[in-house]
Amino acid sequence: DLLARDKESLAAVETADTGKTLVESRIDIDDVISVFRYYAKLVATQSDRLVDVGDPAVISRVVHEPIGVCVLIAPWNYPLLQISWKIAPALAAGCTMVAKPSEVTPLSTIAFVRLAQEAGVPPGVLNLIQGSGAAVGAALTDNPDVDFISFTGGLSTGQNIARSAAAHVSKVALELGGKNPHIVFADIGTGDAWDAAVDQVLTGVFLHSGQVCSSGTRVILEESIADDFVAQLAERAEKIRMGDGTDARSETGPLVSQQQLDKMEAFVALGISEGAKLVTGGQRHALGGSFFEPTLVTGVTPAMRMAKEEIFGPVAPLFRFSTEAEA
Ligand code: NAD
Question: What atom in ligand 1 is closest to the CA of residue 75?
Answer without folding.
Answer: 26
